[in-house]
Amino acid sequence: MESIVLPITEDGPGRWCRSFCPARRLLTLFMMLAKLLREIDAIDQNAQPNYARRNALTYQCVGLALEAGMKAGMRLDTTQKEPERWPVLFIELPTGEVSWHVANEPQAYTPYSAEVKSRRIRLYCYVPVDGIAD
To answer: Considering its fold, how many domains does the chain have in total?
Structure first.
């Protein structure tokens, strides 16, 4: 894997930064994922787990795993009958698959256009919305 070397001005002339090296980025993702997985495991070992915290962490883990190129995502638990199927987040680790049931809180879907979604995101981020209306 080729290293990408970029100059950074705050280090002064002649300094080079290897922080954007793909291998280093991948290692950072793996380390962040491992840290969150340890926290999830500790929550699961608790007699009264904090499921809200665990669920939030599992969503973060799936995002990190996908960014690192691992197989991860969400599926429905097919061992349960409709309408009791719960969503399951999963990650394929080198040591095998891990998965967690997460909250099954169905909410009615309210359709909206891509333009409305973009406007909402831009408003949230304080970006000019170029006259897009709800």
So the answer is: 2
